Fold these 2 entries.
Entry 1:
Amino acid sequence: MDISIIVIGDELLIGQVTDTNSGWIARHVNPLGWNVKSVKVIGDNEAEIIKAIEDSFAQTDLVITTGGLGPTKDDITKEAMRKYFGGEMVYDKEVEKNVLRVVELRHLKINDLTAAQAYVPSSCKVIQNKVGTAPIMWFERGSKVLVAMPGVPFETEQMMENEVIPRLLNHFCANEHIEHRTFIVIDHSESALAIKLEQFENNIPPHIHLAYLPRPGLVRLRLTGRLTDKTQLCNDLDVLSKQLHDILGSSIISYEDKCVAAILGDLLRSKQMTVATAESCTGGNIAHEITEVAGSSDYFVGSIVSYSNSVKQNLLGVPSEILEKEGAVSQPVVIQMCHGVAKLLGTACSISTSGIAGPGGGSLEKPVGTVWICAKCNDKIVSERYHFPGTRDRVIDRATMTGMLMLIKLLKNE
Amino acid sequence: MDISIIVIGDELLIGQVTDTNSGWIARHVNPLGWNVKSVKVIGDNEAEIIKAIEDSFAQTDLVITTGGLGPTKDDITKEAMRKYFGGEMVYDKEVEKNVLRVVELRHLKINDLTAAQAYVPSSCKVIQNKVGTAPIMWFERGSKVLVAMPGVPFETEQMMENEVIPRLLNHFCANEHIEHRTFIVIDHSESALAIKLEQFENNIPPHIHLAYLPRPGLVRLRLTGRLTDKTQLCNDLDVLSKQLHDILGSSIISYEDKCVAAILGDLLRSKQMTVATAESCTGGNIAHEITEVAGSSDYFVGSIVSYSNSVKQNLLGVPSEILEKEGAVSQPVVIQMCHGVAKLLGTACSISTSGIAGPGGGSLEKPVGTVWICAKCNDKIVSERYHFPGTRDRVIDRATMTGMLMLIKLLKNE
């Protein structure tokens, strides 16, 4: 089944907020064999909301809207839906009860605006929002369904997963399966990979599609298949996966769609090793990425963010002569940082960074984007100078990713 | 002028990639008095691309597309544009030269796929992509313009700013000004704020609009005005800003649309103070947020990410008896972490966190989401127990934000 998503909110069209709801919904309906056909982002405007609903229903049987349901004056979605689906605004006692419960849970006080959430069009079935005050509305017109979700990502995610998707499964019936296989590939640019896989690609059956999703330092390859016969589909994908494995070998660092920090975590856990980081230009971002993974306390001990030279000297044991002679952004400094943090925190593995993230601080010899990175695994140690293009946050992200990939390579050869 | 944006790529519709280009474009055309009318996300499908162009041209004079221009087989945007705008594919020597330059700069080798980037429809004017291999294409049909940008955010951002926006300004002429004023407000929920501002809102002139943009721990208020007379518009906005200031006072922590880390940085710099963090459950994310701000080395010294108890004891001086008796997630531990890191790194200010980010590790007494946070500014110290709802990354984000806001409040009263 195809789905249209309508994302509502002025704040999205001026770029103050980024829509993550449509991606979340897509990722969670795909395994059901459903397919997001298009996503449309529009402002808080009654006529545009109604037009978007009309256009979407012309294209798909299911429309999901997110946003525009808050209690403040700039939200007019509810009224637009009432106009489109008919009926009148009615006060729903069950919604009121739910609003009171949520407000109390948040240690807030009820007020007129929060209470106004209890008004809903009589043409909808209400699904109580267990994690927020805006009621979820289910509308039907003939064979078509529209579900209006809140804009707050946490609320949409919780309620889609626990309440809306089960109801949609009951209402519609999936007859086509969609399956994905994702491969995280390093050591290749997107086009070098495409050339290596040309023959492989030419032999892919028509119900399976290969996509290249390049990321800094890696390419995600994704096989997507669609077929009514799920067993056959899985079998076809398994055959192709085996072929990819034979062609790319150790350049595939994961056969699952996992973030690099999770791949690193799996390796550390399987080898029963621990890791620490000593971060200058990445400012704690490697530690942050590692600890975003649930269960990372099994292998992550801690980090020293040594932004100032005094921290590099006093805690990580970088000699002041080296800092003076070579500068903080240099090979001997980053190597000592790596040794220093492993010794201080008692870990087998460590990653260290020192660089110029910009926009200031660059020189002819060491321009903005210059980063020394070091990774250590037991007595093996590698260090490398990189030059990452782009803005401050991009340099930080690239250095973070590269540091983790360097340690992954060391661990794979351990 | 109104703009339609078409975002192209299967990877967006299955949620593997999040579109940030449309938001970036919106933020950068708004100050020119231009307005993003809608954003449409579609797959790599020729018929859908052509239909989206038709629909968009029916609505606006300017259409910007992003994505679908890479060298691999799943990109068919270029052919769709050729079909829509006419002409044939021609080999462009200037594009070839640019591709060679960029490939060399990246220390990569040219290959057949990268070279294929040099084929462009004869119906377009090419804008050379200074930071990537995919050429930017400028098409015209009557009074209407379509600009096809690459999908890589870095390339789109650099090329929009330096090449495309200046050309668009030359081509179209803006006659209406759009101005924004943003206020970062704490201490109020969205609806409490709306009630406090009811009278203020009723007196806003019709060419100015007020929007509420709630974020964890704060609400961003945004006044948006549109008028041909720029001086009058700015004057009107200044009057309203003064009124908001009188109503909300110190609850406004910034009169610019800045992230909390930048607001904290401004305060530290103006008071010539330094800060360090001691992070357990936030795992380095506070340090990361602080150091994402350019120039943060002026006031940020470093951080101890003390994920394991041994780091809390050995580096931050948390007595083992307290860890045993109270547990790591407790008030005395978080207070000692805050004192310990300020002493170790020699700073006036510090922030510390210790909590259970989940999904595991919770108990009846300390459920998942329980976080102790402490902030210190000279001899003033505050500590508080919070319970944040939601997933692991949400708990980390909320704790990060709350820690920075606690220190901002201390600094404001310094």
Entry 2:
Amino acid sequence: MEAMTYTITFKVEGSKDLRVPAVPGTTLLEAAKQANLAIDAPCSGNGTCGKCRVQVLSGEVESMETRHISPEEYSQGYRLACSSTIRSDLTVAVPAGALAYQSRMKVTDLSTGREQGIFAALQEELRDLSFWGDHGLSLVGVHLKSPALDDARADRERLLWDLAEQIQSTGESIRFSLHALRRLPQVLRGADFSCTVVLRQDPDQKYTVLDIFPEAAGENAAPVLAGLAIDIGTTSVSILLVNLQTGAALAVGSAGNGQIRYGADVINRIIESTRPGGLGRLHKAVSDECIEPLIRQICHTAGLPPECIYRVVVAANTTMTHLFLGVPAEHLRLEPYVPAFFATGTLRGTDLGLRVHPDAEVEIAPSIGSYVGGDITAGAFSSMIFRKEPLSLLIDLGTNGELVFGNGEFLMACACSAGPAFEGGDISCGMRATDGAIEACTIDGQTLEPAFRIIGPEGQKPLGLCGSGLIDTIGELFHYGIINAKGRITHEGKRTFRDEWGIGGYILAFAQESESGRDIILTETDIDNFIRAKGAIFSAIRTMLTMLDFSIDAVEAVYVSGGIGSGINVKNAIRIGMFPNLPLEQYHYIGNSSLSGAYGMLMSRSATEKVLEIGRGMTYLELSSHPSYMDEFVAACFIPHTDGTLFSLDA
Amino acid sequence: MEAMTYTITFKVEGSKDLRVPAVPGTTLLEAAKQANLAIDAPCSGNGTCGKCRVQVLSGEVESMETRHISPEEYSQGYRLACSSTIRSDLTVAVPAGALAYQSRMKVTDLSTGREQGIFAALQEELRDLSFWGDHGLSLVGVHLKSPALDDARADRERLLWDLAEQIQSTGESIRFSLHALRRLPQVLRGADFSCTVVLRQDPDQKYTVLDIFPEAAGENAAPVLAGLAIDIGTTSVSILLVNLQTGAALAVGSAGNGQIRYGADVINRIIESTRPGGLGRLHKAVSDECIEPLIRQICHTAGLPPECIYRVVVAANTTMTHLFLGVPAEHLRLEPYVPAFFATGTLRGTDLGLRVHPDAEVEIAPSIGSYVGGDITAGAFSSMIFRKEPLSLLIDLGTNGELVFGNGEFLMACACSAGPAFEGGDISCGMRATDGAIEACTIDGQTLEPAFRIIGPEGQKPLGLCGSGLIDTIGELFHYGIINAKGRITHEGKRTFRDEWGIGGYILAFAQESESGRDIILTETDIDNFIRAKGAIFSAIRTMLTMLDFSIDAVEAVYVSGGIGSGINVKNAIRIGMFPNLPLEQYHYIGNSSLSGAYGMLMSRSATEKVLEIGRGMTYLELSSHPSYMDEFVAACFIPHTDGTLFSLDA
């Protein structure tokens, strides 16, 4: 007997309807996954975050009761997709707010003047340090004798001997990419045997002819040696197309990581990857569905064929690196937490099935442990703390939080279990930094009315709070005494309330002011969750420093990076006890340090070697096995901290 | 308006019916091509060879008149597929004899005791010369410490450091194939961290970990290091799966070259390759449709996964090499006849899209000119004439004829335009060496009745003459005075005739004795065509020798190779003036020298280097531009020759 299936139709604003078959008992969230529709579920479908609100327009589902849906909303068909099982054919509307990512998602990709300034400074620093241009790729002009009956040398050998003489090498040390070989006869004859060759010199003095073009003259522009830096984050992917001769950014692109429909965090992705066919699905979700279209898009923008990409660098956390390469990741989450690899060595374009030059060198930033990956080693490189004398701290705030501390003498790194709060998880009105997110908030000391900066076009109404907005809001609420050190509402007024279960809250925006038509509220439960997240970061910093016998004051510079870092108000982050109480001028925002590090590696093999060296030399601190970490964490779960002397800053 | 199309149904014995749409005016041969049905057309569809006889069962075609179809046959619907254009929906029967190749096609692939003897002798010779086992591949056992919380090194690095110590190398000089990396975590843990690694050592002292297996013990057999030798002929493809540790042949396979439907000879293939999408079609026809299934088949036979193939060597003529690699071949046939490459350097499995280990090294035997390819350089290697003092001649008779002459001091090679006669082309009763082919013929001196050896199962009736049978028949006809030196019938009897146009012929088999139910006849036109073919070979030998100031007698050894060579009767080949008049004991049949040479290259990198050296050192003689060649050719177009003293052998 064939299993009975229902047809589920998802309606998404601005997209075509999606139809999938589903067997009875499937949840709406699972059905959406089948439809390749990424509904936001940072709690991974446990029914706790309330992000996956959808509206059932027709048909029958069986849903668990939840505080996230009011009786009125319930009667209108609103349900949590994760907690609703399918009982008939269905038509389901998916509001924009329930989508895990949107096209205008804010990522760190040189789209702002600030980012561009950071990029220009990085380029200058790389040049100064000679991490520049030694990628081995160059263009060589050749002018060959045309073949004749008495000189019937084959095209390859004709070119080879000329080239060997020009570069003062031997024929044996030059190999031809099959790609070049295939183009050779036509290109040579189309250009009267005067051509430009794309040559790669390897460190062992061997050469590869990667491609051949007609000599640049008249209509023929000189070929572009392009490279690609890729940052694969758990939530989003950014890529940067670079002219390897000038170092200029030719195009940038970013998109949500297609794996998000299999889970918001790395643990859920790893679990999915161990299911039958799961590793292939996760690989495909990031590679075929995300990176490939991005490559097409940026190449289109830059007017270059993807085969002109001769060098690729990928920086990602350990799990993302494994899944991108199609390497089993399950042991990352099983004691003793051992990755399949720290470094991979140089790979080739075709290894990864990427539509770049088949012989492109692909470098992968090395990991140092299951939870400190290539994004951090690359980030530590781009922060340049490895070459400075002052003790510095790198705080990378992405989907996970990671820290690096040290200087030119030593480097130590750890991952803090900050959880998803900074990306909107575990916060009822939390959201990622996309359109409608409140990214900055101030509260008027007199009226206690809030004012916002909102991501999106002019006139955008608020939809929720992203990480930086959350820090601001809680900082301001605490500053004006609306909440106390434990995060409890201590003020009664127009914008505060206490519900029937005794849980207090603050109303950021009333229904009529908000994009969704629902109140945007921050509850004491949300604040608790946030406090644990910020506590995790600060306690990680303290544990690492204490372990190395340093006090907070020993830190002479703090580099903040990552998507959340972009909009962050450091003063507020200190005020709530998330960042150490250091002079503001010691803080430096350095953008997407993972992508910047990948860029550095792209431009230079010695930079690549340096990142590998950083990886080999960096000590990995496993916080969970450190005896004093739990005490530090508990102490940090106050605003700002149980030890008030740590945050005596006059705010 | 959409173009009108008809539906053509091809009925082939033992196969499913094939249906294709065809526009009016298409020939049946073209329609068959569309249906991927390889109808034999050695004359490339000019209507001259008569091989493409099909029977129209229903529907209407417009056909040119031809001597190959009798009025009676015409009334039964017999037509030449190449000369019949489509005028309606059609049902067409394709007789077995019209198919370009059949499953039982006779190829040189170790299937006979004689071939096996040749193979064993080659192995011994390779061993003696130390062209043996230096392919760089080996198995290394590793016994690693299991990871623990205080030893959380990644799998790759754990293995790398152990391996580096064992082989006394550095970690930097060892790279991991992505294939091995992907298998690493599971294999290590499934085998308690005791494993066997497939390691390749490169000439520059770098290493690649290609694969990893559980340690051989108990149920786990030791992994097999397999290699693949491939001979791509214009007509058929042979492959040999080899155990690289022992040199043993694990399995052999052969199939018709799928490109045959685009033309019987290299010129027609090149022309097809220049049509839109043609290069891709020809590449696919040999690679996806022929080599891939053969690999699957022999791996199944040997019980090995294709990923165990770590080394591949391909030997083929220049055109086949270009088309197999997807490199444009059109300049091979345009003056000054320049290939895109002589050698390619080492390629990788993934370059070619072959389903072998993705990092398998692929070596291609080098060409020395447009019409002397890797089959000849590999063949010259396996003949070992390059290391002998006596002057030797290699005659390779495949779809083309090629010659190599020389010794340890020098080598010269040329291609003779022998045409397709030895494979049945241009001969009315000619056919390839498949079931039903007469491969040997003797004529009774008294009765003048013929006796045959026929390829195929017991009781197989004759269908036509293959190359060796043709040589025998003409040799015997001449010997018993049935034909004269010009190839004219000079005898009247039961088996001879002269038709209404005055063309004489000899009846090899009467209708009732033949498989097709038609007389098998050899006409004076056929004999003319054959004389030109054998004349091309002998005159090529003479021209080359004369040019080097040698007489025929200077040749001390003749090595005969190729498919046709297998059944050849050397005495008859001398009698008709095809082979030089030398003592029979100076002739040595060496089988498929292209495949043998590929086998040598597979077993040894120094053998590969030697073949490359042979290629670089071999002089290419372009016969067509040689002034005395035409005179030599005309003189050789007699049986045995205009200069009778050259063939004073008492036959």
